[in-house]
Amino acid sequence: MRAMILAAGLGTRLKPFTNMHPKALAQVNGKSLLQRNIEYLQQFGIDEVVVNVHHFAHQIIEAVESNAGWGSTIFISDESSEVLETGGGVLLAKPFFEQESSWLVMNADILTNLELGKFIAADKILSEGAENYIATLAVTNRTSSRNLLFNSDEKLVGWKNNSTGEEKWSNVSNKISNPETIVAKAFSGIQIIHSSFYKALTLTGKFSLIDAYLQVASSNTIGFYDHSDGLLLDVGKPENIIKAASLFK
After folding, report:
1. Do 226 and 190 sit in the same domain of this protein?
2. What average pLDDT does this structure show over 97-113?
3. At 81, which CATH number?
4. How far is CA 26 from CA 8, 22, 231, 235, in A?
5. Which pLDDT belongs to residue 202?
6. How far apart are the first and last CA of the chain?
7. What radius of gyration, in Å, describes the C-alpha atoms of the chain?
């Protein structure tokens, strides 16, 4: 299985560091987030990794080359001309996954101890026999400003911004039918995507993975894997970089 690390973002929450550097090169105990996640993937036998780049792209490329990919084979998906957001970035990287039936995608600014072996096994069980299965999203029950919304069959049907009240639905009927059965989960920024994703996707250009998932979920299945018993830290904020130093040695 190949993986993709989403590292093209502007990292505005990590200013002033990201005024001069990409967020993927922020350091935790002497190792960049990019290095940590490449080495994390290696623990589960994933050593072919696509990294998309935009913000200070040359710094990421230089870090990868000077460190020989930290022992992995690294492919660069170049978004230097325009940042395409998470969904557009995965779409641009399509050529790297032409031979893959499924692959893992994760945000560069996530640190976790999620047991990928269990996640991959769960995805296999969920997708077996499921019609038009697109992806399995890693989630937890933590409090979040935004939630993914699943129905009683544990299929993705919507998204909600808890701060503003904004909602997005894969189908209008999901909003009005049996709202009491909707289950809210916090997305971990980690997912296993199947090749059927590219076949079902009609969005182009710049768009988020959430919008992509909601578009394809209207007629396809997207499930979830809950790892609330594990450790997950969004290190896209300065205070969490400090916190990460005590959790990830």
Report:
1. yes
2. 97
3. 3.90.550.10
4. 13, 7, 20, 9
5. 97
6. 26
7. 17
Is there a contact between 33 and 77 (Cβ–Cβ < 8 Å)? no
- The Cα–Cα gap between 30 and 245 comes to 9
Q: What is the pTM of this model?
A: 0.95
Residues composing the chain? 249
Q: Output the pLDDT for position 173.
A: 67
Q: Could you give the number of structural domains in the chain?
A: 2
Residue 225 sits in the same domain as residue 165: yes
Q: Are residues 119 and 89 in the same domain?
A: no
Give pLDDT tens digits for 34-50: 999 999 999 999 999 99
The answer to whether residues 68 and 175 belong to one domain is: no
Whether residues 79 and 178 fall in one domain:
no
CA distance 245 to 169: 38
68 with 118, same domain? no
Per-residue tokens: 48:
């072919």
Give the domain extent around 147. Answer: 114-230
167-223 confidence digits (pLDDT tens): 999 986 666 666 678 999 999 999 999 999 999 999 999 999 999 999 999 999 999
